[in-house]
Amino acid sequence: MLYRTQLRDAVVAALQAANTLAGQKVYAPRDLPVTPPGMPLILVQTPMERKQGRGPVGAPQFLTTATVAVNARVAAANAGQVESLLDTLCDQIENAVLTNSAVLRMVQQVLAVETEIEVSAQQRDHLGEAWMRFDFEYPELFALPVTQPLTDINGTAIATTGNGVTPPVEFDFPIPQE
After folding, report:
1. What is the CB neighbour count within 10 angstroms for residue 138?
2. What is the DSSP letter of 166?
3. End-to-end CA gap in the chain
4. Which backbone phi and psi does 125 adopt, to 5 degrees?
5. Where are the alpha helices (DSSP H) in 60-119?
6. 35-39, 43-47, 60-64, 88-92 — which is least confidently predicted?
7. pTM of the full predicted structure?
8. Considering only CA atoms, which of 68, 27, 28, 31 is closest in space to residue 49?
9. pLDDT tens digit string along 115-155?
10. N or C terminus: which one in the chain shows less Cβ crowding within 10 Å?
């Protein structure tokens, strides 16, 4: 499973445990239409990931930034109520994610948090939506596959004592194959 998927699932679990206004209505990728009776609710996605190489050091190593996008949706009778609900829900989301030890243990640092709010009155109910984007940074190492089994280890050791050098000692450790 992709690490960003594990991170998204940890954020979903943190939000479900936080008892926000959305309660247990916290969903990972979902594209079904949502109507006001189903609100408030929270949708969580990982729409972006960026890997930055850490140099030519053998196996591919990256410093990865994954964006976890949290979409909060609410409905109310007027724009003021919608904005108030969104402010409360955004505060709850931010606190739930940024204080959850399971999420924070998975990352090296939180690079940024962005919040965007929109209120609409195009229907009988006023609808509000907030997008919160959490940029999480973590290291990734892609181990190269072993294509040939290790059969033995050979080496040479030279000891230096004072002004003298002892003759090299060579060793060979065969590795039993199963």
Report:
1. 16
2. P
3. 30
4. -85, 150
5. 79-98, 101-105
6. 35-39
7. 0.77
8. 68
9. 999 988 766 778 999 999 999 999 988 877 777 787 888 88
10. C
Amino acid at 63: L
Q: Omega before 40 cis (within 30°)?
A: yes
Band of residue 23 on the pLDDT scale cut at 50, 70, 90: very high
Q: Please name the amino acid found at residue 133.
A: R
CA distances from 18 to 93, 98, 99 (A): 8, 11, 10
Token output for 109: 């640092």
Residue 62: CA atoms inside 13 Å, Cβ hemisphere, count? 13
- Categorise residue 162: left if φ over 0, alpha if ψ from -120 to 50, beta otherwise: left
Bridge partners, 130 (sequence order): 72, 117
Distance CA 66, CA 167 (A): 54
* Choice between 47 and 165, residue whose per-residue pLDDT is larger: 47
Which residues have a Cβ under 8 Å from the Cβ of 27 and sit 6 or more positions away? Answer: 12, 41, 42, 43, 44
